Structures are given as C-alpha cells and as structure tokens.
C-alpha cells in the first residue's frame, strides 16, 4: 500500500515542475500514486467512482501564494474561490494556510462559517444575491460584499445594517479578445456579471457609494474569465482599471484603495494546454501594478487575487472502474465507466478536454483511441472523446486527471446517481472528507 517514501516524493516535486503538467503524480512500478498510496488500492478500499485530492499539493500551492504576498512591496491578499471545490475540510485547509475566501452563495458562506472560517476574511460575490443571503452576510459580519449591480445596494439598505458595509464593485473592463470558451468568459460588455466601465451608471453608483456613509467602498473587482493563458490579459485589464482609478481621482477626488483582479489562471487539462502558473504569473502582475501605480499616480493600498481552479484542479483525480467495452459497426470503441456526467459535467457543458490513464498500467504504450462514456441516459454523457490508452480490460481502474476543480462542486444526482466520496491524501495520511452518498441520502428530502 505504501511503497513510495516521503523522501522520494519530495525529490519528485523538486525535480522539475509538477504543477505545469496535467499529471503531477508519481508512477511507481507501473502504478499511479497519490502521496504514499497506490490509486488502485484506494479505489478498491473506498469503491468507485472516487474523487481523490492531494492535500499536500493544495497546501503547497497555497504556501506559494503566502510567500508571494510576503515578498511584494504592495499589500497583496490572495483568496481561494470556493466555487472550485468547497466542503468543511477544504474551508479548514484555506483557513490554516492563511488565505482569504471568496463565496458566492448562502450555502458556501454557511459552509465557511461552520468551518470556523474568520468572517472578516470572507468576500461575498455573486450576480444575484438574495435578500436572505445579504442579511446572512451582514449577520455573520462578512468582511467584504462584492456588489454586482445597484439593486444589491437597495437590498443591503433594506436590511438596515448597523455599521457601514465594506463593499467592492464588480466591473467589466471591456477586453474583448480573451481566449477562453464563451460560457466561461465574463469580463465583457454583455456579461451577466458586474457593470460596464463604459456605462455612466457605473460611475454614478461609485459616486453614490463613496458619499453614502452607510457604505465603505474599497475599490473595483474584475474577473476576466477562466483558463486565461497569458499575463497580457491581466496587464491590459490593470492598464484600463488604473486609468479609471486615475480618472476618478482627478475628476471626482475619489481614491479607491483596493483593486481585485479575480482568478482565471489557466491549468493543464491536457498536454496541449498552456498553464498560467501562479508562482510565475503573480509576481509579474504585482510588479506591473506597482509600476503602473507609480506612473499613473494611483495610491493603491491593496491588490487582491482570487484563484480557484489553479489551486485545486491538478490536485484532484476521479477514479472509475471499467465496466464494459463496446464497439459500434463503424469501429468506434466505447469504454463504459461506473461514473457519468453527474460527477463529470464539464465535457458536456464546455466541450472540455481531459487526459486519463489506466492507473495500474501507467508505463504501457497507448495503442488505442477510445471514447470514455458514462452511465447516464444522455448521448452527451461522454467524459473524454478520442483518448489514447493501452487496450483496456473490464475491471481496470481508470483515472481522469485535473478534476479537483468544478467537478465535485458541479456534481448532481441526475438519474438518481449517488455522489462519489471525496478523499484527501496528505502523503501518508488519508481522510474521507465527503462520504459516498447512499440511496437513503437520495430519499432524505423526498416526501410522499
Ligand atoms: C468572481 C470570480 N472569482 C474567481 C473565480 C475563480 O476562477 P478560476 O477558478 O478560474 O480561478 C471565478 C470563477 O468563475 C469568479 O467568478
């Protein structure tokens, strides 16, 4: 069960950059490892489908962010965008590693509070926060509410807050060329998120919030999209935003002290993906912001980032069992696994691409081109198209890489399928952080 030593693992992390690849895990004797465990042993013990997350890798990425914060001249605050993956254990990890937390719903907020996450380090986002959610944020004394639109201002006032409410405003800097899928691009004119910087209403709202003593407007927030692959996109947004800060300063005498650049740093799903590694990207963006602030005479106090995917995606894999292999008359070969779009929705949703491997046959040549299909009653229930693999056999375990973000958090009970368990592996330690759902769980909220 534990053939790899901790020493081996450390050496592995130091030898090259495991974060730049879709597979940051070791192979020992043809077997894929996570921490000191062979993945197939975990699959056998905890059953499949199974989400496995490398907690050590997640923590090491978070420590990198803390180091970057400590080395910047400007005050930098990094938070984790919990929509990527959140449960009590994850909120604990974020708390212990000292990052702040981005939540977008009452449910995410409740999870954070139940994990004793410090509320002052929580940022409450979302384009349509309900009155109940905003009241909850005020009751829990959430540090910052990131406003999306003027209605939220009225909703907050209707809650009759007892203290000035610290807010930021989400805006769209109107960059139009961002190279990502349309569904995951957000920083443009017709986006459902935030307010356009070209819209007069935006400036009116900024003036109103600045002069209303019931609010403490700290600055603007942008999230440019997901899977952004170059720093240029961030720098262009910074140029536009700091230009806007300068304009506000000069024409309205409004000095906004914070700027939040959001998340969206690209990760590797396949060997063709360009990674925007946080360790490489953040220092460059921070340095550029520092120098642009000097040039434009914008006195910024704090710069914020909120990556989600890039902290957890590559740390996670989903393990399935091969249950059948079927060929069509035209020669297409399907590999049926015991999961589905209910635990892996991104292929159907965004035509996302993935890599996978037979976890006990890692060194074998990939001689076949196959389609990995799930068990849901949807022809769109394909996990991976045209995947190269060794010839699979029924009962082989297969793992899909890069499933730590937007998998468990996007999972459903479609077809009354039960959600898999989630296990955190930290070198030799292992804990189940989400139990596998049972049929009883499925019925728990049903009423006759
Ligand atoms: C406001 C905001 N911040 C951060 C993120 C995290 O993005 P990513 O997981 O791509 O880093 C998102 C993702 O949708 C977002 O909407």
Keywords:
binds pyridoxal-5'-phosphate, alpha/beta, 9-stranded mixed sheet, 448 residues, 24% strand, 8-stranded parallel beta barrel
General description of the model:
By secondary structure, this protein is an alpha/beta fold. Helix content is 31%, strand content 24%. The protein contains 13 helices and 21 strands. Strand 2 and strand 3 form a beta hairpin. Helix 3 runs parallel beside helix 10 and helix 9 packs parallel to helix 10. The protein is globular. The site of pyridoxal-5'-phosphate has 17 residues, from helix 11.
Largest sheet: 9 strands, mixed
Class inferred from helices and paired strands: alpha/beta
Compute the number of strand runs. 21
Total of DSSP H or I helical runs spanning 4+ residues: 13
Compact description:
The chain has helices at 6-14, 39-46, 55-71, 88-97, 106-114, 131-139, 150-158, 200-211, 231-252, 278-296, 309-312, 346-350, 439-443, and strands spanning 27-28, 31-34, 37-38, 50-54, 75-81, 100-103, 122-124, 144-147, 165-172, 195-196, 215-221, 258-260, 302-305, 316-327, 333-337, 356-358, 368-373, 382-389, 397-401, 421-426, 429-434. By secondary structure, it is α/β, with parallel strands linked by helices.
Secondary structure blueprint with pairings:
Layout: H1 6-14, E1 27-28, E2 31-34, E3 37-38, H2 39-46, E4 50-54, H3 55-71, E5 75-81, H4 88-97, E6 100-103, H5 106-114, E7 122-124, H6 131-139, E8 144-147, H7 150-158, E9 165-172, E10 195-196, H8 200-211, E11 215-221, H9 231-252, E12 258-260, H10 278-296, E13 302-305, H11 309-312, E14 316-327, E15 333-337, H12 346-350, E16 356-358, E17 368-373, E18 382-389, E19 397-401, E20 421-426, E21 429-434, H13 439-443
Parallel strand pairs: 4-20, 5-6, 5-13, 6-7, 7-8, 8-9, 9-10, 9-11, 11-12, 12-13, 15-17
Antiparallel strand pairs: 1-2, 2-3, 4-14, 14-15, 14-19, 16-19, 17-18, 20-21
Helix pairs in contact: 3-10, 9-10
This protein binds pyridoxal-5'-phosphate.
């Amino acid at each position: 069960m534990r053939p790899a030593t901790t020493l081996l693992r450390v050496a592995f992390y130091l030898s090259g950059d495991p974060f730049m690849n879709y597979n940051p895990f070791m192979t020992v004797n043809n077997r894929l490892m996570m921490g000191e465990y062979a993945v197939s042993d975990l699959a056998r013990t905890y059953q499949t489908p199974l989400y496995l997350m490398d907690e050590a890798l997640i923590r090491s990425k978070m420590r990198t962010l803390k180091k970057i914060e400590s080395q910047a001249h400007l005050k930098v605050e990094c938070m984790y965008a919990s929509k990527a993956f959140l449960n009590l254990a994850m909120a604990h990890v974020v708390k212990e590693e000292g990052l702040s937390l981005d939540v977008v719903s009452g449910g995410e907020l409740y999870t954070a509070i139940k994990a004793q996450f410090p509320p002052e380090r929580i940022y409450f986002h979302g384009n349509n926060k309900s009155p109940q959610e905003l009241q909850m944020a005020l009751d829990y004394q959430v540090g910052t509410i990131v406003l999306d639109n003027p209605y939220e201002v009225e909703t907050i006032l209707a809650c009759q807050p007892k203290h000035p409410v610290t807010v930021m405003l989400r805006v769209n800097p109107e960059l139009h060329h961002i190279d990502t899928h349309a569904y995951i691009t957000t920083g443009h004119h017709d986006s459902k998120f935030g307010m356009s910087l070209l819209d007069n209403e935006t400036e009116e709202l900024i003036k109103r919030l600045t002069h209303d003593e019931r609010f403490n407007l700290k600055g603007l927030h942008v999230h440019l999209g997901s899977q952004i692959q170059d720093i240029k996109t961030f720098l262009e947004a910074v140029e536009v935003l700091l230009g806007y800060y300068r304009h506000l300063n000069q024409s309205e005498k409004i000095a906004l002290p914070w700027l939040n650049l959001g998340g969206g740093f690209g990760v590797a799903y396949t060997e063709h993906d360009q990674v925007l590694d946080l360790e490489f990207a953040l220092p460059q963006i921070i340095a550029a912001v520092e120098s642009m602030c000097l040039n434009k005479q914008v006195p910024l106090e704090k710069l914020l980032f909120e990556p989600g995917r890039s902290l957890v995606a590559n740390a996670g894999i989903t393990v399935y069992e091969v249950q059948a292999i079927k060929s069509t008359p035209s020669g297409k070969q399907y590999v049926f696994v015991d999961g589905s779009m209910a635990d892996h929705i991104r292929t159907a949703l965004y035509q996302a691409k993935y890599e996978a491997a037979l976890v006990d046959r890692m060194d074998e040549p990939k001689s076949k081109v196959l389609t990995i299909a799930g068990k849901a009653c949807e022809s769109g229930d394909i996990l991976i198209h045209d995947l190269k693999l060794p010839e699979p056999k029924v009962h082989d375990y297969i793992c899909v890489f890069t499933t730590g973000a937007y998998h468990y958090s996007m999972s459903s009970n479609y077809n009354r399928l039960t959600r898999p368990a989630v296990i955190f592996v930290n070198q030799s330690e292992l804990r189940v952080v989400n139990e596998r759902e049972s049929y009883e769980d499925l019925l728990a909220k049903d009423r006759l």
